[in-house]
Design a protein that fits this description.
By secondary structure, the chain is an alpha/beta fold. 51% of the residues are buried. The protein binds ligand FNR. The site of ligand FNR has 25 residues, from helix 1 and strand 7. Ligand FNR binds next to helix 1 and strand 7. Pfam families: FMN_dh. Homooctamer. Dimer of tetramers. Involved in the biosynthesis of isoprenoids. Catalyzes the 1,3-allylic rearrangement of the homoallylic substrate isopentenyl (IPP) to its allylic isomer, dimethylallyl diphosphate (DMAPP). GO terms for molecular function: isopentenyl-diphosphate delta-isomerase activity.
């Protein structure tokens, strides 16, 4: 199938997929503190991601690009919102634009709309160093996301079948690209074993892209009659994956993403060990179905919710929030126990 049409179909399916709350956030309960000893004005939402400083822990995660005019409009709309709210934004895979100059404008618009904001480029682990550099230059990116999506490829009949050499290619990009590299999953989660391999080759930032939100196995299986249904529930939940990565590869900055659907989920992702939280499907859905004002309002509300929740927990900074006491129930508790985490 032609790549642009597939990307548009992904958007339609992603927006309509039933959301089941499997990301594990419901298993996380904060321990109430009766003496928080701060006021909401003391809360500071700025955070760091490797060497990058961000004024908000929230960002718009990678979605679209390379699908002609409709995706140009989406990227333009999301970039305007990222600028207005002072949050970072990642573009979707730029592979098509690296190969075909006609596709570049749907990405370039993001930098044009938001000349000084933090923007991440995006490419697959099959890319060469030269392709990675082109993706960064195309939008003058502050960082480069390299996505790992082996299960999504396997579920697609036209997808890749050979994943040999990805780690070595990522290593070369780490040394040659000139901006921080973020290695990300796309909804199947990242294990401690993967995180440690990435840490060893010099990666400093990973995005767990956990199970429980957008599910490309279900999306692909819903698009055709013969389905590989055994991949539908494949993956590490976002909550479990954040703990796996942050506790076993401690030099990494961690992005919690996958199924974040409220500020409360985002605050829990940070309390589990993330520095930054990425949201893809929900932000796109609100923008497409309700418009710019509604998404701006939602992000402002989330920032307000962050201040209230962090005040209740007595945490002034995102770093303090990463260390609050909490209790882990249910499947997430079971998973972490089985995998050797306390
Ligand atoms: C994505 N995602 C994605 N990721 C990536 O690295 N490159 C890409 O091109 C895309 N494309 C894309 C399109 C659409 C329509 C969606 C909804 C998502 C994955 C995304 O960045 C994220 O990892 C997952 O969607 C999980 O987060 P949410 O959607 O549960 O918040």
């Amino acid at each position: 199938m032609e790549r642009g049409r597939r990307k548009l179909e992904h958007i339609v399916h992603a927006l309509n997929l039933e959301q089941k709350r499997e990301a594990g956030f419901d298993d996380i309960v904060f321990v109430h503190q009766s003496l928080p000893d701060i006021g909401t004005n003391d809360v500071n939402l700025s955070t760091t991601l490797g060497e990058l400083s961000l004024s908000s822990p929230l960002f718009v995660n990678a979605m679209t690009g390379g699908g002609g005019q409709p995706t140009l409009e989406i990227n333009k709309g999301l970039a305007e919102i990222a600028k207005e709210c002072g949050i970072a934004m990642a573009v979707g895979s730029q592979m098509a634009a690296v190969k075909d100059a006609k596709e570049r404008q749907s990405f370039e618009i993001v930098r044009r709309v938001n000349p000084t904001g933090v923007v991440f480029a995006n490419i697959g682990s099959e890319a060469t160093v030269d392709e990675a550099k082109q993706a960064v230059e195309m939008i003058e990116a502050n960082g480069l996301q390299i996505h790992l999506n082996s299960v999504q490829e396997l579920v697609m009949p036209e997808g890749d079948r050979n994943f040999i050499g990805a780690l070595r290619r990522i290593e070369r990009m780490v040394h040659a690209v000139g901006v921080p590299i973020i290695v990300k999953e796309v909804g199947f989660g990242m294990s401690k074993e993967t995180a440690q391999k990435l840490e060893e080759i010099g990666v400093t930032i990973v995005d767990v892209g956990g199970f429980g939100g957008t599910n490309f196995a279900r999306i692909e299986n819903n698009r055709r009659p013969t389905s590989l249904s055994y991949f539908n529930d494949w993956g590490i939940s976002t909550a479990a994956s954040i703990v796996e990565v942050s506790q076993s590869a401690t030099s990494l900055s961690v992005i919690g993403s996958g199924g974040v659907r409220s500020a409360f989920d985002a605050v829990k992702a940070i309390a589990l060990g993330a520095q930054v939280v990425g949201v893809a499907q929900l932000f796109l859905k609100v923008w497409m179905e309700q418009g710019t004002e509604s998404l701006l309002e939602l992000i402002h509300e989330w920032h307000k919710d962050f201040r209230l929740l962090m005040t209740a927990l007595g945490t002034r900074t995102i770093e303090e929030l990463r260390h609050v006491p909490l209790v882990i129930y249910g499947q997430t508790h079971h998973w972490l126990n089985e995998r050797g985490f306390d």
